[in-house]
Structure formats: structure tokens, C-alpha cells
Amino acid sequence: MMMSEAKAQELDLPVLARIRAFASVGVDPALMGIAPVYATRRCLERVGWQLADVDLIEANEAFAAQALSVGKMLEWDERRVNVNGGAIALGPSIGRIRLPDSGVAGA
């Protein structure tokens, strides 16, 4: 759950983390899977950190190939990535792969 520090204080909840930076990055559509590399670098630059300054990395990429490429380009320490588990997809969700028999050619 995310909320402002003021709201956490109002509810007497501890502040467990702070967002120090964020970035939006666009890349050539042929290279879309590597945008997180550039967004990560931009965030690190904004706060004056190196990736080695980050204790834990939570990487949620949709596909394993993308996660591997991003990790290789960032040269992160795999022992600090998704230490509490993570998730990837093997492809489109099975529920979306359905071919209804409508009786109409091409449908």
C-alpha cells in the first residue's frame, strides 16, 4: 500500500520506504524490452547513486528474456534481485488463447 508520509503519520503507520526518483523513457519499438535499463540509469543519476548502492532490486518484467537482457545490461548482482520471489510470463495468459467456434469463416 502506498500513501503520503502525512497520511501514514495520520494513521500512525510506519514509513517503510520512500520514492526517491522515477523516470519515463521511450526507446525504438524494436528495442522496447530494454527501456527499463535507461529508466533505471536515469533514476540512479537523479539521486546520485550507483546500482551497487541499492540493497535490493525488485524487477517485474513480463518475460524472462526481457529480465535477462535488462539484468545483463545493468550488470546487477543476481543475489539482490527479487529476493522475495518474482514473476514472469511464458507468453499470453492461457485464458486469452481461445478460438471460439462461431461458424463464421475467418472469425
UniProtKB/TrEMBL annotation:
Keyword Transferase assigned: yes
Biological process, per Gene Ontology: fatty acid beta-oxidation; phenylacetate catabolic process
MF terms (GO), sorted A to Z: acetyl-CoA C-acetyltransferase activity
Gene3D superfamilies: 3.40.47.10
InterPro entries: Thiolase-like (IPR016039), Thiolase-like_sf_Thiolase (IPR050215), Thiolase_C (IPR020617)
Enzyme class, UniProt record, top EC level: transferase
Listed EC numbers: 2.3.1.9
Record flagged with keyword Transferase: yes
Domain annotation Thiolase C-terminal: ranges: 14-95
Keywords of the record: Acyltransferase, Fatty acid metabolism, Lipid metabolism, Transferase
Record's protein name: Acetyl-CoA acetyltransferase
Species the sequence originates in: Citrobacter koseri (Citrobacter diversus)
Gene it is expressed from: thlA_2
